[in-house]
Amino acid sequence: MNCRSEYTALFIICVLIFSVIGCATHTVEHDQGVETFYSPWLDKSFEEFLEENPDPKQSTPIGQGNYRHTFVYDIESQAEIVVNLLAALGETATGRDDYYHTYVYVNSAGTIYKIHYRRQTEAW
């Protein structure tokens, strides 16, 4: 093997490693941002929450007067940016969109008692 191909392979491996680390760090930052945003709303009025965050995508009764309201937020992750760039360059056939699905649980008195979120990815 010549020296140039060895350095090229090493460079590619380093880029992949840094990409994975960067994506993982970016995901943790997003998760912390979501938790920071929602945690002050626990034990607060859902009506006040709706004034600042209108448009739940779905409201589901879960029994005993309690509801689960689903909110969907589009996020732009580093992985999404890289995949969409590769798709635009013709390197891959699909792109992706990342979303947070946030579930706000409200009791019969109209108070938020639990907030849960999940990250989802859709390919296009």
User: What is the molecular shape?
Assistant: elongated
Largest sheet: 4 strands, antiparallel
Percent range of helical residues: 40-55%
Report strand order across the widest sheet: 1-2-3-4
Which structural class should the secondary elements be placed in? alpha+beta
Distance between the termini: 39 Å
The pLDDT mean sits at 78
Beta percentage is 25-35%
The topology string of helices and strands comes to HHEEHEE
Number of strands: 4
Q: Could you list the spans in which at least 5 consecutive residues all have pLDDT below 50?
A: none
The whole-angstrom Rg is 20 Å
Task: Characterize the structure shown.
It is a single chain. Strands 1-2-3-4 form a four-stranded antiparallel sheet, covered by helices on one side. Strand 1 and strand 2 form a beta hairpin. The two termini are 39 Å apart. The protein is elongated. With 124 residues, the chain is of the alpha+beta class.
